[in-house]
Amino acid sequence: MKWTDDRGGNVDDRRGSGGGGGGMIVGGGLGTLIIAAIVFFLGGDPSGILNSGSVQSSGNSGEKRELTANEKQIGEMVDMMAKWNILTWDQIFKENGMTYSAPEVVLFENTTRSACGVAESAMGPFYCPADQKVYMDMSFFNELQQRFGAKVTEFTVAYVLAHEVGHHVQTLLGTTQKVDALRRSGRYSEAEMNRVSVATELQADFYAGVWAKKTDDSKHILEPGDIQSAIDAAQAVGDDNIQKRAQGYVNQESFTHGSSAQRKEWFMKGYNSGDIRQGDTFNQLLK
């Protein structure tokens, strides 16, 4: 992946601030974190688990520290990627007669607070609609490589960030609110809502593919192997792969994010088309 001079991506870097350490798990304990990790890896709104009261923070017990040179470089990279998302989505929204407002990207370590509740490293990256921020603990990428078999590159990080920004796009377009209304209505079974969740997540993958295409068209950031690294990450966190690794078998009715094949399919559809209007996963998957 080629770097550019773009910065100013609306990043709040909380690493080393002293407010992240010392997290304490109360009530649900580790089981809650395992559920959160499986259900919300590369997911949307985690408030269903976070706001249940099962996970709480013990407060700002950590000590401040200076970021290492490598951590500072990672911060620069995320700032650059976040700016790419702002520029690309601003362009896409203008082309469709709309106005884009960017999310804030929060970098943290161990735990931090969000409007959806306490954010924990074990959850993986997520988007919180309540404050319109993307939360990322970079230790997730070690987990992605070691536990889920994805080879992590710089563009892997770009894909994950683009997926979460895709959830922000859904919030701006009203999709998130419609899905939440369905969930709150109580008229649908768990299996039916899981299918809605899959459509939501695959649309975020589609938007990530659109972003990759449009950003490369304007910035020429892609190098050989970059798109494959995004596909590898998407497939690694497919529900079937996660379930096989976690429990040894696959239960398709419990899918919430889509299979590895589906995640690749919709990311590539977004990348090949570059057209946000072709990402109606709901009509295609909920027939």
TrEMBL record:
Assigned GO CC terms: membrane
Give the way it sits in the membrane: Single-pass membrane protein
For this protein, the record's InterPro entries field holds:
Uncharacterised_pept_Zn_put (IPR007343)
Q: Name one GO molecular function term.
A: metallopeptidase activity
Per UniProt, the keywords (alphabetical) are: Hydrolase, Membrane, Metalloprotease, Protease, Transmembrane, Transmembrane helix
Q: Give me the segments passing through the membrane.
A: 20-42
The listed locations are: Membrane
* Identification of the protein by name: Metalloprotease
Q: Which organism is it from?
A: Chryseobacterium rhizosphaerae
The organism that produces this protein has a lineage beginning with: Bacteria, Pseudomonadati, Bacteroidota, Flavobacteriia, Flavobacteriales
